[in-house]
Design a protein that fits this description.
heterodimer; A: 2 domains; four-stranded parallel sheet; 8 strands; about 45% helix; B: alpha/beta; Fumarate Reductase Iron-sulfur Protein, Chain B, domain 2; 3 domains; six-stranded parallel sheet; 21 helices; about 10% strand; globular; Fe-S oxidoreductase (chain A); oxidoreductase activity (chain A); Cys_rich_dom (chain A); Iron-sulfur binding oxidoreductase (chain B); LutB/LldF (chain B)
């Protein structure tokens, strides 16, 4: 299986460690991974703003970059959601369909496709609060949703519990959105920032030293809110923990 | 006249500035959401009920004319006068004429979102009719000159001291006495004489039952029953989408309604109105007011399934932190954001963007309206109809172009490698500045992933390939 690695723009520019960890982790697991150098964006920011035709160029480029791979893996739930569920600014050719069908968020790829049983190199002696982004939770369905009362399951928790020394803090409102919401974070900045602050406080008060997430866009926003609001909590991408980061 | 779009963001910002109100609002509604969850866990068939409710509503909406005609025929047999109102103006005119015919001057009414839609009080009052809301929350809102901020708990954005002030102004009570008991008592003392002497009563309604020609009103205060039965004249106003085919369907909807709304198994009063009381008159006004047009909208017609429980508002993290009034519309919260644009696309063009599209609303909806997906679709429609602010439209256009050209994009990103303490140039436009108002920027990094990959993987690859050669 040849894997194409997609690193979303904000990870590329601001959180390269999450991208490096994703790549190294997949390599440790024996995967053949390539990062196409001409990649930019999946089209989501434009499409989510309603400007679907403006997403066409990004989507077409994405397909040009990734059509040749068996699987496309990305450390981002919301980008995966866009490619899988809303990627329709361009004609739906066989190539496009192939790309959409074979795009995976990192956690679901590790959990469902590779079915990884252990991360022997991983040890994280800290108390963490897991933030499921709304994209992973309610669109990709990587965990059970509190609104539906369905039996508990959590793919990210299945993976994290395989890490030595890790412990978990449970916030009061685990499924509440953190308020990032793409351009919402700017056009509705007051509500967005308040949601973010409430979110990080919830984790902090539950005893979390770190907030861990499969979505860096959420934690980029949460980190900004925590730092401004004086909430002493740290942020880490799930790939970094699974790849063996100690702090 | 050019209509200005509602500025939800600004109104929300003001709401957020008031910590005691914000905290109460968020926690009170979150508590309702949690009580709803508890009720859901008590019913193993909860998801089946939701599916059935959705299917019944979709079937009924697909056959709406037939069921409405069936209802009309059966209601007439029950001695009920049935009226049809194409819009708010016709509704108000019909109600005004009925009242005039009876020489009625004092109308007591229970809560009805449709009369809010039609702005009925503003029509009747200049014509010499005193309208008195009998639902406590709605009465508080009426005395304060505000729209309801929530479809089930209309004054949930207010604290007890606010109510004390409003009552003091209107009922001459002590503005500093904010014990709920004395406030309830002063409302009772003020309302009872009005109720007992009113010459006409009005209710909304939750369900019209086609096969029986009857309708169902659910309240927790019993005020609808007083409004309907104390005067001899009862006018009920309902939207045409409120209809269900059979009485047996109530077994699905009554079980879902209050559990979804307040987290209580059933409303305190669930009254089936079957016809006028002895010597009295009963009228039903069936209101369209844009509903038929909405039924014809391929992507949005299922919003007509709504049973007005407010569960989507209670769960919505944006609504809880911005308050219903910030939506500037009769219907607020997630359901408002997908319904309101059908009333006025320009005025409510901002509302589908007042959401993170997190999807919690869709999950709690008892009739399975795909609210967050409709928000997404509305955004597309509004952009196509040129209702997105020019600056945002331009930025998206530029960003879209940039994202299609890797070399140009890389140049823009590489700005960060030169000036690591700042965001890339393309995100430095004024439009994006609000990020920093309540948030720090991401920290500068040594190099982008792209550069790291070039140095740590591509180089090695080239070297090892070179070695092989």
């Amino acid at each position: 299986m040849k894997i194409g690695l997609f690193i979303p723009c904000y990870i590329d520019a601001f959180y390269p460690n999450a991208g490096i960890a994703t790549l190294e982790l997949l390599e440790k697991l024996g995967q053949d991974v390539e990062y196409p150098m001409d990649q930019t964006c999946c089209g989501q920011p434009m499409a989510n703003s309603g400007c679907n035709s403006d997403a066409a160029a990004a989507e077409a480029l994405f397909v040009r970059n990734f059509a040749k791979y068996d699987a496309i893996v990305m450390p981002s739930g919301s980008c995966t959601h866009h490619v899988r569920d809303n990627f329709d600014a361009i004609p739906q050719t066989e190539e496009v369909k192939h790309v959409r069908k074979n795009t995976f968020e990192l956690v679901e790829f590790l959990h469902d496709i590779l079915k990884v049983e252990e991360f022997p190199w991983a040890e994280f002696p800290h108390k963490v609060g897991l933030h499921n982004s709304c994209g992973t939770l309610r669109a990709l369905r990587t965990a059970s949703m509190s609104e539906l009362g369905e039996p508990y399951f959590s793919k990210p928790m299945d993976l994290l519990t395989k890490v030595k020394g890790i412990s978990f803090a449970t916030p009061k409102r685990p499924d509440e959105c953190c308020g990032f919401g793409g351009t919402f974070s700017v056009t509705e900045e007051a509500v967005s920032a308040r949601m973010g602050l409430d979110k990080v406080k919830d984790h902090y008060q539950a005893g979390a030293e770190y907030i861990v997430s499969a979505d860096t866009s959420c934690t980029m926003h949460q980190q900004g809110c925590a730092e401004r609001g004086g909430v002493p909590i740290r942020f880490i991408h799930i790939a970094e923990i699974l790849n063996g980061a100690r702090s | 006249m050019k209509v200005k779009p509602v500025n939800h963001a600004k109104a929300a910002e003001e709401f957020l500035d008031d910590a005691p109100h914000l905290t109460f609002h968020d926690e009170r509604l979150w508590d309702m959401r949690q009580k709803r969850d508890q009720q859901m866990h008590l019913l193993p068939e909860w998801q089946e009920l939701r599916s059935r409710a959705s299917a019944i509503k979709e079937h009924t909406l697909a056959n709406l004319p037939e069921y409405l005609e069936q209802f009309e025929a059966n209601a007439k047999k029950n001695g009920i006068h049935v009226h049809w109102a194409a819009d708010g103006a016709e509704h108000n005119r019909i109600v005004g004429e009925i009242l005039e015919k009876h020489g009625a001057k004092s109308l007591i009414k229970s809560k009805s979102m449709v009369t809010e839609e039609c702005d009925m009080r503003a029509y009747l009052e200049p014509r010499g009719v005193t309208v008195t809301e009998t639902d406590l929350g709605e009465r508080i809102q009426q005395l304060d000159g505000q729209m309801p901020s929530h479809i089930v708990v209309p004054a949930v954005h207010k604290l007890v001291p606010d109510v004390a002030k409003i009552f003091a102004k209107n009922y001459n009570t002590d503005p500093n006495d904010d014990s709920p008991q004395s406030l309830a008592e002063s409302q009772r003392m003020a309302a009872r004489p009005v109720i007992l002497t009113a010459d006409s009563g009005m209710t909304g309604g939750n369900f019209l039952v086609a096969e029986t020609g009857t309708f169902v009103v659910c309240t927790n205060e019993g005020n609808a029953d007083l409004s309907a039965t104390v005067p001899n004249l009862h006018i009920a106003t309902l939207g045409i989408e409120r209809i269900v085919p059979r009485m047996a369907d109530m077994g699905v909807f009554i079980r879902l309604l209050s559990r979804s709304a307040l987290g209580s198994p059933i409303t305190q009063y669930t009254t089936h109105f079957r016809g006028p009381q002895k010597g009295g008159e009963m009228h039903i006004v069936l209101v369209d007011n844009g509903r038929s047009a909405r039924l014809g909208m391929e992507e949005f017609w299922t919003s007509l399934k709504c049973i007005r429980c407010g569960a989507c508002m209670n769960t919505c993290p944006v609504y809880r932190r911005s308050g219903g009034l910030s939506y500037g519309a009769v219907y607020s919260g997630p359901i408002g954001a997908i319904i309101d644009p059908t009333f006025n696309e320009r005025k409510y063009s901002t509302l589908p963007f007042a959401s993170t599209m997190n999807g919690s609303c869709t999950n709690v909806c008892p009739v399975k309206i795909n609210i967050h997906e409709q928000l997404y679709k509305w955004r597309r429609v509004l952009v196509e109809h040129h209702e997105l602010p020019f600056v945002k439209r331009e930025i998206m256009h530029m960003a879209g172009k940039l994202m299609g050209q890797p070399t140009l994009y890389r140049t823009a990103i590489n700005g960060t490698e030169v000036a690591l303490s700042t965001l890339p140039r393309f995100v430095l436009y004024n439009w994006l500045n609000p990020w920093g108002k309540h948030r720090e920027l991401p920290h500068p990094v040594k190099q982008t992933f792209h550069t790291w990959y070039k140095q740590n993987r591509l180089k090695n690859k080239k070297e090892s390939q070179g070695g092989k050669a």
